[in-house]
Amino acid sequence: MATGTLHTDLNALVENWRALDRLSVSETAAVVKANGYGLGAGRVSKALAKAGVRQFFVAVAEEARALRAVLGPAPVINVFSGHMAEDTSLINDLALTPMLNSPEQIARHRERLPGHQFGLQIDTGMNRLGIEAYDWAPEMAEGATLVMSHLACADTPDHPANAAQLEAFLSMTAGLRVPRSLAATGGTLLGPEYHFDLTRPGIGLYGGAPFTQAQSVVRLDLPVIQTRKLQAGETVGYGCSFIAEKESVIATVSGGYADGLIRAMSGRGQLFAGDIPCPIAGRVSMDMIGVDVTHLDQVPPALTILGPQQSVDDLADAAGTIGYEILTSLGARYARQMA
Ligand SMILES: *Cc1c(COP(=O)(O)O)cnc(C)c1O
User: Fold this and answer.
1) From the alpha carbon of 80, which atom of ligand 1 is closest?
2) Which of 111, 125, 131, 160 registers the highest number of CB atoms within 10 A of its CB?
3) β-bridge partners, 226
4) 280 lines ligand 1 (CB under 6 A)
5) What angle in degrees, to the nearest 10, is found between the helix axes of 41-50 and 10-23?
6) pLDDT averaged over 10-residue windows placed end to end, the chain, 339 residues
7) Pairing of strands 235-236, 270-273
8) DSSP state, residue 275
9) Which residues have CB under 8 Å from 25's CB, separation 6+?
10) In this structure, which residue's CA is closest to atom 12 in ligand 1?
11) Cα(280)–Cα(259) distance, rounded to whole angstroms?
12) What residue's CA is closest to ligand 1, atom 13?
């Protein structure tokens, strides 16, 4: 087999949810948008539901199809983007709970699906999604299942925006008798005053920062297609950007930017043979990566690019991005295994 093998450890995922649930003074939901951060929303959600998750969040209504099919009718599926004009039948048929984001969405929802459950998202300073303070009236929350907002800087605990958003959330929701939610993974780690009635972790479940105690969930092994010896002065790959300083051995592994291993890793990231790091040699191609394995006694059949040796955040750092982007870019060509 010449494709990489992407292994998702569902037990580790469930343990990460349990760990965040223990940290949280409130109910703990699970965010499974973007196909469960690239790992497969159906399987991920099924495992989490079995572990006791009762509320899920997706970004857009279409993403809820795969969820409802595996979850059955009981779990709550909340939709961050709310009630868009084309969403009415999906929201109705799949019994979704849209997080209404504007007076227009509230009007649409009340008119088209009177009596159907909904939540509200309010903007407390991120200026991305949610009802603005100048449009907000607490009466809007009448009948809502949840009032939520989102923090812009929760991964930076000392950032003044956290306290400012907390303050705004408290003042906009004062006196409401509706469950409230402010924290994603970062907010959960900020402490109990950010937890309210429901926390909404995503990335921490999948093993990513800022939940640094998370267990490793993904492992990605790329098979070695070929190895070759290079003389000093020979080069590797497009643009000849790697130049061998001495006699070297280069392994060509299967996997490239078409598989989400982005070109920014060129000449910067590394793969692993067991615990031994092996640097990427030259540019990442569409389907292949050259790896310097000169120092190995024996070249294994596959090299590991994600696993306990190297987290999504380690790889992201090498490529100048974040773990979220590495995860959600993981391609469709891998042989995907879940256990
Ligand atoms: C993506 C998202 C989350 C989950 O965020 P993580 O940082 O992955 O934990 C929670 N709430 C909202 C509104 C989001 O967009």
Assistant:
1) 13
2) 131
3) 252
4) no
5) 50
6) 93 98 97 98 98 98 97 98 98 98 98 98 98 97 98 98 98 97 98 98 97 96 98 98 98 98 96 98 98 98 97 97 98 94
7) unpaired
8) T
9) 192, 195
10) 150
11) 16
12) 150
